[in-house]
Write the structure tokens for this entry.
Amino acid sequence: MRGDGIGSSGQDGRDRGQAHLSGTTGDARPRRRGRRVLISLGVLALVLVVLVGGGFWFLADRWAGNIDRVSDVFADLQEEGRPAPATPQQDAGEEPITFLLVGSDTRSEGEQGVDPGGRSDAIMLARLSADRQHAQLISIPRDSWVDIPGYGMNKINASYAFGGPSLLIQTVEQLTQVRIDHYVAIDFEGLIQVTDDLGGVDVVVAETTRNGPYTFEAGLNHLDGDEARWYLGQRYGLAGGDFDRVKRQQQYLRAMFDKLFSSDTFTSPPKLDAAMLAITSAVGVDDALGNAELVSMAYSMRGVTPADVEFFTAPVLGTGMEGAASVVYLDDVAADRMWGYLRSDSLGQNADEFADEALPAVPR
């Protein structure tokens, strides 16, 4: 993104993933059932490729091995001061997993996986439920006025600049009392490249807006990579400013996954392989998450479709000024309820309570 966007993309991974073959068309059965059938077909096709092409290496090295590792993310965190793990619902099957997803404004990384002058552009908590059938993604506005351990009150994204991923994790855990299991660094610029790899994505816009060389008309817009860059980068000219920008980030992720889960991707192993190589080159994870665990986790999520992922924004009271800085004040009462549901792995069952914080069907 221009100006306050994310840095350059992971070119090497995309160079290895440029082969595209056209896929077959999906059937006319109901959307949700149809997607699960297509996913099963895609998994079956990939299993055949795995058996012919070298077994476990195909997934563990080709995809998971394409993901960068961020070192020592949890090394400086004192275990006794961290929140307890999330409590799974009875007979849920596995333990819930919580990720901290961070889109940074730089790919020039220092010793802790962050440029010393960089700040996080997007901060999201992602929860994979214990039943592995649902997920929730909660954006925390980057200007949220919070207590940063060792530094006092400041914008939450300043913790990333002060102490990299470790301090950001510590800050988020202190704010939410939700334990972070894994850290994911997202290069939004790299994901924007995936837009072109997937042949563009569709978003629906509530009001006509313009940013840079593009006009985004009210209604359906088919975005290529460069259009997505300007669409995601817009804040000025939107009634909600950065709040609307957060909604666009969430909407874009949903649109991208919709396209990734579409029939012409999942029924074409070569096209799926190219898309996965592009996506994996655009993310980094903490070095405690090995390739085998990544593949196992991905397999456990095989039943999750975009329709099973809910998007929220942390509840806010409004905006204000702290000195010369414009900040966001979180609604501590409503947010505490949201974090409590996360701790008990029950946010999905209580989603209606946060309808105002949910991703609208048609963002600005």
